[in-house]
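Two records follow; treat each independently.
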Amino acid sequence: MTDGRIVYDGSGGELKSFHIRDGQGIRLLQRAGIKVGIITGRKSKAVEVRARELGIDPVLQKIQDKGRALQRILMREKLRAEEVCYAGDDLVDIPVLGSVGLAVTVPDAPAEVKSFVHYTTKRTGGGGAVREITEMILKAQGKWGKLVDSFRPEEAGGGRCRKRR
């Protein structure tokens, strides 16, 4: 959800930026009945605030063993690893990437990480990669068209979105 950079403000606080379309993508997943969670190695108030804003649960921060964290989530949510999509961008993500049904990374991830994924996004972390993943999942599940149609104004006649003339 971020570009990996950390910016400190003058008082030692941490700043992060999030792409607005990534947030909308998360909302679309939720609307389609797909749960979204976060596992991160750092603890950040910015992540906590953004996750709360988007209704993301679970949010596990300051996690050293992401594989173990995934197992806790799978038990809590009564899921199998094959039912999970996970996006990660560094070596610490490999245990999870190697065990889920859809493993995704971003273009600037290390080659070692890329060797464990099914898909590398075209967009960067913090630059729309989450939205790209969202659209891929929803299209594969046949849910994208209906979600897009739900944004069409009633007076436009509903149905599939068409290019304006």
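The next record belongs to a different protein.
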Amino acid sequence: MTAGTSDGDLVRMAAAGHTDAYAQLVHRWAGRVTAFCHARVRSPDAAEDLAQEALLRGFRAIGTLADPDRFGTWLHGIALRSCLDWLKSKARTQVTFSGLSAGREAEGFVDEQTTPVENELDARTQRERLMAEVERLPNEYREVLMLYYYNDATYQDLADWLGVSAATVNARLTKARAMLRERLGGAARAV
């Protein structure tokens, strides 16, 4: 099995019992599924769990996939159902979206005239503010923004994943960034 093997071929091999083929699919799709779940449920911890659940459900149901070449769309549907189930659950707890960028450097937010502790506090505050505004975006804009930055994907990759055109992806990303700039003022340089 090579890296150039198509998703459809890997699905057919996985359905025939080759678990290493499904492992290759997981490697390809786990980041996108996690980003999709994160955009839907707004919780990094829950997103990880839901992505794993969706990938496991996919493995168990791989033999039911009618068109192996549409694996991504099929898996996207499984992830969506997992997220919707979680959102409907009364037992879930509310987690803020600000944990998304924990531990990441927020370029453009650090003032070199302050101490390292002040820089870290200011950067953390700016990240929290940014993530709070991302959380407030309408779902179609939040989703494309999260998928784009989580996966470093191309517009065409996102278009295939979301079932829209690359032009729609571009328009949504442009609108999402404009909304964030408007809401954050000059602090949105890193978006």
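Discussion point: The two ends are 38 Å apart (CA to CA). How would you locate this feature using only the token line?
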